[in-house]
Structure formats: C-alpha cells, structure tokens
C-alpha cells in the first residue's frame, strides 16, 4: 500500500490533465476506440429516434504516466478515478437532445507502467435515425452513432477504430429488434469522428398475427357478400361491416408509422386498395339489390343487358349439360353390357335407357339452338336472373383482384 501511495504521489506531483499527454506537443496523441452495445432500449419509427446503452473502450498512451515497476514493489497496474488524468472526452454528434460528454464522474481508468490507459465509459444514448418503413412490418433500418472527441482537432487527437464492426460482448437481446449487421468507419477532417453503423430488423411475427393476417382474412372474405342470398337481409350489413373494419385497421397501422410521405409503406397502399375495393363492393351490392327487386313487366330488360347475360348462362348451362350427358352415357353403356337376352325385364331397361338418352340429347340440342341474340321474350332472362349472374361475375372478379394484390404485397415486402 505504501508503494502505491508513493507511486501516485510521484506520478501526479507535476501532472496537468489540461495538457495533451505527449512530450512532443507538435504531434497528436493516438486514441483508439471500440464500441460495445449493451442493449437497444427502444426504436421509435414515428419520432425517428433510437435509444440504446453502449460502452466505449478507449485507450491511449500517456507519456507522463510511465514508471519503473521495480522501484515500486513491481507495481505494474493502477486503477483510479478518471478525474485525475487527461481524457479524450467523446460526444455524440447526432443526438436527439443536447450533446453531452459520454462519461460519468465516477468511471475509473486503468493505467499500466508503460503509460497505456484504458478507459471504459458507458452511457444511454438517444440518437436520431431516419426510418425506412416501405416494407413494414418486414422492415429493417440502418442507424449510426457519430462519436467524436469534440474540441480536439486532428493535430491534437488522432482517432482510430481497431475493430471493423461493433462489439456485442455484453449485448442483451431486444424483444422487437434484431441487429443483423454492423460496420465502423473513421472520418477525418478538421476533427476526427468515428461512425458506427448498424442495421436492425423487426421481429414481425407479433404484428403479422395481430394486424396483417386479420387484414388479409378480411380482404378475402369481402367478395363473399355476393354469395349471400338476396332475401337473407344481411348483404348490406356484411359489406359495410368489412368496410368499417378496414378503416379501423388503417388507423392502427397509421399510428405505428412516421408522418412522412417518403417512403410510404407498401402495407398502407395495400390497405388503401382493399378499402377502395370494399367501397366498390358496397356500391355494387346496393345496385345488385336494386336490380334484383326490379319488376320485369314495368321495366323491360334492354337487349344490351339481356344478350351478355344469356351468353354467360348459356355457356355455363351448356357445359353442365355436356358433363351430365357424358356421365349418363357412360352409365348407360355399362348397364347395356350387363344385360342378358334371357331376362325380359332387363331388355325393357335397355329400351328405357335408350329413350332417356334421346330425351337428354334433345334437351342438349335445344340449348344449342338458343343463342345470345335471341329476341323471344319468353326466353329472355328476368331481372332476378341477371342479378344472380352478375353476382357470380362480381364474386370472381373481386376475389381475383384481392388474391392478386395480396400475393403482390408479399412479393414486394419479403
């Protein structure tokens, strides 16, 4: 203990912490600095700020603190309060609030007998970070901490960064963000600055389950309003409820995003498109209900409406009859092979089968005689037939649009 007291007395007898610790004052002191990330407390995309705990590992050589270890009981290492020695005070140059030194009066420094000093100040830094929310919630953001020995020119302090990346030896994992990469860069100008860049990626599972998947499910069930019967009385309430749900989810997503127009989130565009589609479905549903309740006598069906509907119904019905007819012929052919000449009842069955085939063929030919250009009022569709046919068209069209935009959304953000 006596050796330590004597050593401290001799070291600081004529020491000045206001003077750069080099004997030749015309050359700078070489300072190396690495940054350890302890934790990421918060990343606020709306405010564009990141809050994190860091520790700086700063080392330099103080030529005024060199001693002969053999003269002081082989004492090669000293630890004392930082306020006793010259310090290259570091400042964050992209703070959210005022810039303060990254240190505390109670931090210690470690000095070896050859004058090498290790200083490890820590702090909670709140820095600015411009978010990129275009791929939200699959977004990732690149932030940086710009740290400099502010107040010292490059002629006084030469700052170097030994490690090419940030250190995560003491890192505690964040529940929302993962650090996927980092890099360091030393900038030299009128003063020195260390730039620590890192990229964080959102853990999107929670937002997917709570917001994105419900939005996609709403979008997919929206066209099914055209499957509901007209007399159910639920078509209008169904479509309006989905429309209101999209409005609520758009508000939820907007609260999580910064008020900026560049860049805009692809998810916001997707919800807007689904909202527009929902509005169109409400409008189409209203006109469909009105169409279904029209009177065929008071309001005759125009030919330009009747002909396309007849074509659609004829195509659908012809395909259905062809399928049924082919199935029936296969069944009848199989029955014929099982008939025997000795069984009279079976012979009658063969005759019945043939008669039924002729009847079916006659119906099929009758359908082919009818075409899209018929003007026979007895064969024209009713307003209810038109409403049901256009219901099917709307259902297919809106469902295809929804599926297409949903797939395009995932391709764009993944």
Account of the protein in words:
This protein has about 425 residues and is an alpha+beta fold. It folds into two domains: about 200 residues, Neurotransmitter-gated ion-channel ligand-binding domain (Acetylcholine Binding Protein, Chain: A), CATH 2.70.170; about 160 residues, no CATH class. Helices cover about 40% and strands about 20% of the residues. The strands form two sheets. Strands 1, 2, 3, 5, 6, 7 and 9 form a seven-stranded mixed beta sheet that branches. A four-stranded antiparallel beta sheet has the order 4-8-11-10, with no helix packed on it. α5 packs antiparallel against α6. About 20% of the residues are buried. About 10% of the residues have low confidence.
Helix content: 40-55%
Taken from the alpha-carbon principal axes, the silhouette is rod-shaped
- Structural class, from secondary structure content? alpha+beta
Instruction: Tell me the span between the first and last alpha carbons.
Output: 64 Å
Number of domains: 2
How much of the polypeptide forms β-strand, as a percent range?
15-25%
What fold name stands as the CATH topology of the largest domain?
A: Acetylcholine Binding Protein, Chain: A
Can you identify the CATH class of the largest domain?
Mainly Beta
User: In the CATH hierarchy, what is the superfamily of the largest domain?
Assistant: Neurotransmitter-gated ion-channel ligand-binding domain
Total strands: 11
How large, in whole angstroms, is the Cα Rg?
40 Å
Write the CATH architecture name of the largest domain. Answer: Distorted Sandwich
Low-confidence segments: 319-326, 336-370
What is the multimeric organization of the chains shown? single chain
Order of helices and strands: HEEEEEEEEEEEHHHHHH
How many helices in DSSP terms? 7
Strand count, sense and barrel status of the largest sheet are: 7 strands, mixed
What is the mean predicted local confidence, pLDDT? 81
């Amino acid at each position: 203990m006596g050796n330590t007291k004597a050593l401290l007395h001799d070291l600081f007898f004529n020491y000045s912490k206001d003077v750069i610790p080099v004997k030749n004052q015309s050359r700078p002191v070489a300072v190396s600095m690495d940054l350890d990330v302890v934790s990421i407390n918060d990343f606020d995309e709306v405010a564009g700020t990141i809050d994190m705990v860091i520790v700086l590992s700063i080392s330099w050589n103080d030529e005024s603190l060199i001693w002969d270890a053999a003269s002081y009981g082989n004492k090669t290492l000293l630890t004392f309060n930082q306020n006793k020695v010259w310090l290259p005070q570091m400042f964050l140059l992209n703070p959210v609030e005022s810039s303060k030194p990254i240190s505390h009066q109670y931090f210690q420094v470690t000095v070896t007998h050859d004058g090498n000093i290790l200083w490890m100040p820590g702090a909670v830094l709140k820095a600015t970070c411009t978010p990129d929310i275009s791929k939200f919630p699959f977004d990732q953001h690149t932030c940086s901490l710009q740290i400099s020995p502010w107040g010292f020119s490059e002629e006084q302090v030469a700052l170097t960064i030994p490690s090419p990346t940030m250190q995560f030896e003491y890192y505690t994992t964040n529940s929302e963000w993962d650090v996927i990469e980092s890099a360091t860069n030393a900038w030299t100008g009128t003063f020195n600055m260390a730039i620590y860049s890192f990229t964080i990626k959102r853990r999107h599972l929670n937002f997917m389950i709570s917001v994105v998947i419900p939005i996609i499910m709403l979008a997919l069930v929206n066209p099914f309003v055209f499957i509901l019967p007209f007399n159910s009385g639920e078509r209008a309430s169904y479509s309006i409820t989905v429309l209101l749900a999209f409005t609520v989810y758009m508000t939820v997503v907007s609260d999580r995003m910064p008020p900026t127009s560049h860049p805009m989130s692809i998810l916001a565009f997707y919800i807007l498109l689904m909202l527009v589609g929902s509005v169109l479905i409400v409008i189409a549903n209203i006109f469909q209900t009105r169409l279904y309740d029209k009177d065929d006598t008071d309001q005759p069906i125009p030919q330009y409406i009747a002909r396309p509907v007849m074509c659609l119904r004829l195509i659908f019905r012809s395909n259905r009859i062809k399928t049924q007819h082919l199935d029936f012929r296969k069944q009848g052919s199989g029955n014929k092979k099982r008939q025997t000449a000795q069984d009279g009842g079976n012979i009658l069955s063969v005759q019945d089968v043939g008669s039924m085939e002729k009847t079916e063929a006659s119906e099929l030919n009758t359908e082919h005689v009818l075409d899209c250009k018929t003007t026979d009022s007895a064969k024209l569709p009713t307003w209810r037939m038109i409403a049901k046919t256009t219901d099917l068209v709307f259902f297919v069209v809106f469902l295809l649009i929804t599926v297409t935009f949903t797939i395009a959304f995932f391709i764009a953000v993944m």
